[in-house]
Design goal:
Blueprint lengths: L1 H24 L3 H7 L4 H29 L1 H21 L3 H14 L3 H11 L2 H33 L3 H20 L18 H8 L4 H28 L4 H30 L1 H18 L6 H29 L5 H30 L1 H20 L1 H13 L5
Helix pairs in contact: 1-6, 1-7, 1-8, 3-4, 3-5, 3-6, 3-10, 3-14, 4-5, 4-6, 4-8, 6-7, 7-11, 10-13, 10-14, 10-15, 11-12, 11-13, 12-13, 12-15, 14-15
Length: 400
């Protein structure tokens, strides 16, 4: 039991460092990109390639770990992470900065392997609690990372954030090398195709799932575009630096932890997940569209509060609805399809936002991101008919 807890602790540390490293870079990446002469599209490309590599690696590494085991994948990606952050810190050009984000994005795909490791070492009755460990690491990492990155860059210099992230990855590698044993028994290893996106097209073909899949693509697309446009706008219009951006992301992280950890369950019992999803999507749309009208830093911080609250309603509500509308025998497959659509949205959204920022202007890019979020909200309203179908299922009536 103690050994299992220590291994869960290392997995917690693995995911935590992944998210801290990701968060450390968030407030300083736009400043690094601008230092090398990148405009909106150039910065958007840095965000795009990280998410795109994560999308590829999540599927690839998870399936590869089914073949060769979890431990070698986890240890290798920890070293990749360290290398990516060192290159980020010392990158002398935009091209090498881009390569650093490629490496870090691929290494961050080890989260799927970490989840598989938890499933291997926990009995079914305790698996949800074990997965909750990973969820806790997400929340803590997203709060600590931007704070560390913003403050380190401001007080210790531009090299500090990347080197701190690299040092954490090396500490993680050493502890994992000592504590982590292989969790996947040889008889449980399987040869699987390394790439298979059929679950995405299957989900889209189903009438009752299609609106949700559209929401899972459009909302991350819009929000990822916002996260690209916001730092560019704040640095140019309000003269923000890494410290101010870091505190803004800390505000988002703290609100997300409070809403998802304490408020969401209570709200959902009274309103239902569909209502919270609709409120979250339209709330994000209004908040994003209002950003360019903030005349000073205080107004932008104030606007961030309802945006973060609305965004925190989206993921748990959308996940809960997918689990309702998917058949009990395919929960993992359909939830995986939803996450794949979200990763795709997070990948292409930054490119679209960067292009719009350069070609159409600051105000327009936020209005477009808000409009796309409205489309996601309209799609969520269509779920009312899907709820009728769900009720039919529970009564045993045939579906069309």
């Amino acid at each position: 039991m103690a050994a299992s807890r220590s291994r869960l602790g290392v997995i917690f540390l693995t995911v935590l460092i992944d998210l801290i490293g990701f968060g450390i870079i968030m407030p300083i990446l736009p400043l690094y990109a601008q230092r090398f002469g990148a405009q909106g599209l150039g910065y958007g490309a840095l965000v795009f390639v990280f998410s795109a590599m994560q999308f590829v690696a999540t599927a690839l590494l998870g399936r590869l770990s089914d073949r060769i085991g979890r431990r070698p994948i986890l240890l290798t990606t920890m070293l990749f992470n360290a290398a990516g952050y060192v290159l980020f810190a010392f990158a002398p050009s935009y091209a090498l900065l881009f390569i650093a984000r490629v490496i870090s994005g691929f290494a961050s795909g080890n989260i799927s392997v970490a989840q598989a490791y938890v499933a291997d070492i926990t009995p079914p009755a305790e698996r949800a609690r074990g997965m909750g460990t990973i969820g806790a690491a997400f929340g803590i990492g997203f709060v600590l990372g931007p704070m560390i990155g913003g403050l380190a860059d401001h007080y210790l210099g531009h090299l500090a954030p990347g080197l701190i992230a690299a040092g954490l990855s090396l500490i993680n590698f050493v502890s994992a090398s000592v504590i982590l044993r292989e969790s996947l028994a040889a008889e449980h290893r399987r040869e699987r195709p390394l790439f298979d996106l059929g679950h995405m097209s299957e989900a889209l073909r189903r009438e009752r799932l299609r609106p949700l899949m559209l929401v899972w693509f459009l909302a991350p697309f819009s929000f990822a575009g916002y996260t690209v446009a916001l730092p560019l706008h704040a640095t140019q219009a309000l003269s923000w630096g890494a410290k101010e951006l870091g505190w803004l992301f800390v505000v988002i992280g703290v609100i997300a932890a409070a809403v998802q950890g304490f408020l969401f369950g209570r709200l959902e019992r009274h309103t239902g997940a569909r209502a919270l999803l609709i409120v979250g999507l339209f709330g994000m749309a209004a908040s994003i569209a209002a950003v360019p009208y903030a005349m000073n830093s205080l107004q932008l911080y104030i606007l961030t509060v309802p945006l973060a609250f609305a965004n925190s309603l989206f993921a748990p509500a959308a996940s809960g609805l997918v689990s309702i509308y998917a058949d009990p025998t395919e929960q993992g497959t359909i939830l995986g399809a939803a996450q794949a659509f979200a990763a795709l949205g997070r990948s292409v959204g930054p490119l679209g936002a960067g292009w719009a920022y350069d070609g159409l202007g600051q105000r327009t890019v936020f209005m477009l991101a808000g409009a796309i979020m409205v489309v996601a909200g309209v799609s969520s309203v269509q779920l009312q008919e899907m709820q009728r179908l769900d009720a039919q299922t529970h009564r045993g009536e045939p579906l069309e």
